[in-house]
Amino acid sequence: MRASNTQPRSLTVCVLTAFYLTFSQSALGAGQAHVHGHGKLLIAQEGTHWQLEFTLPAADMVGFEHAAHNERDKEHLRHIAERLASPANVFTTRGGDCQIAEKEVNLPGAGHHEGEHEHEAHTEHKASHADVRLHYQLQCIGDLQSLTLRLFDMAPSLGEIEAQWIVNAGQGQTELSPSKRELVW
Ligand SMILES: [Zn+2]
After folding, report:
1. Which domain holds residue 52?
2. Is 129 inside any structural domain?
3. Integer Cα distance of 45 and 94 in angstroms
4. Residue 1 resides in a domain
5. Contact by Cβ (8 Å): 154, 91
6. d(CA 153, CA 100)
7. What is the dihedral of CA 166, 164, 86, 142, to 10 degrees?
8. How many A from CA of 166 to the centre of ligand 1?
9. Each residue of 62-119: pLDDT tens digit?
């Protein structure tokens, strides 16, 4: 007649699962109108692993939302991708001793393989909006205490980033901007 003792653990799992589901739905909403100048950041802690997911309008991060039309566009995308692949250009952390375990930089129109050129011309004009998606996984000894966004320096038109977090210290939501770059949970 005693209550099951598995409830606390199940609750934690549910919260994390809901968080990821919410995120993947919004991320999969390709073509969904985003607002230029507004980005999103999701932070989730799972033990020593910290996931950071950015969804940012390509208009702000790249300067255009179409696929690369020519060599100059491609060179520009390569340059942006290189900068974003260096986490220090995107964020810095305080507290914890962290290493980057994984990183993923997805730029619209940059994912074409060689040999796909014939298709580009026919498909690229359809898209109206496109997102830049960044994923970084950190492995930390000790908890992160705060995160400071540096990507505002790369993207002057990016006016705000809506940040949501679920970490051991709690969960919440706030808006970060060029004048309020540090997120403390
Ligand atoms: Zn757009």
Report:
1. 7-184
2. yes
3. 15
4. no
5. no
6. 21
7. -30
8. 28
9. 999 888 889 999 999 999 999 999 999 999 999 989 999 999 999 986 544 433 344 4
Residue type for 35, please?
A: V
Tokens describing residue 181:
């770059």
* pLDDT at res. 122: 44
Taking the whole predicted model, whether its pTM rises above 0.70 is answered as yes
Tell me the CA–centroid distance for residue 77 and ligand 1, in Å: 16
> Does any domain span residue 2?
no
Of the candidates 88, 61, 87, 86, the one whose C-alpha atom is nearest the C-alpha of residue 76 is: 61
21 domain residue, yes or no: yes
Ligand 1 centre distance from Cα of residue 153 (Å): 20
Read off the pLDDT of residues 126-169 as tens digits, 9 standing for 90 and up.
457 899 999 999 999 998 999 999 999 999 999 999 999 999 99
Number of domains in the chain: 1
